[in-house]
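Hi there, hope your week has been kind to you so far. No rush at all, and the record is pasted right below.
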Amino acid sequence: MKLNQIPNIISVIRILLVAPVVYGLLNHQFELAWWLFVIAGISDGVDGFLARHFNWQTELGAILDPIGDKLLMVFSYLTLGWMAQLPAWLVALVIARDIIIVAGTLVYQKLTGDKAIEPLYISKVNTVVQILLVVVVIYSLAFLVLPAWISTSLIFFVAVTTVTSGVSYVYVWTHRAQKTIKEGQGS
């Protein structure tokens, strides 16, 4: 095994943790679900750090990492929404944003031929807040019910950063696509 594959292995482990997290939630094994979700969330930061710090970025990693993130978040939000632990409108908002970003990425790549899509800063903030909300909700189910204002505040921040990042992606990548296409026509 080459060292540059370590981030990819971590991403695969995160993908494999999605099913046990959902299983734990649906079967009221909240402590298990919480620990597995925390491990998966931490793994997202670890694989990114290793890839950047040691220049272990690979094409496979560029695919696995966002897939792992999306699967973990989408299935966690869907499951917590199904269990009425998160509002349905928030679940719909989070999933709609992800669909828009994935569709936009595919359209951008098709129009420009450019495969390099880097996340926006607001998207990173959104991911952190989304993860934090799931951690808090599952923690409240597993260990200690936290004051309602904590989850209410996080729901608000998730909603704001979800909308802001979705709109930002559409705006930024539409302009980049137009610029790339225009430059391509001028040469």
User: Anything to note?
Assistant: The first helix runs from residue 6 to 26. The helical segments are 6-26, 30-53, 59-82, 88-112, 121-142, 148-186. The chain is about 85% helix and 0% strand. The mean pLDDT is 93.
